[in-house]
Known about the structure:
Blueprint: H1 2-16, H2 29-47
Amino acid sequence: MGTLLIIILILLLIGGLPVFPHSRSWGYGPSGIIGTVLIILLILLLLGKI
């Protein structure tokens, strides 16, 4: 389960970077969503739910 979460997070981080031509105008939206997901996962990890 932990390995799967790490792989998904790495893919999200790569996909959230504005390096592709179609995503340059997205701004901070994707990285903000990824940051929120990371905070939620960190809280769940600290509480022992994962």
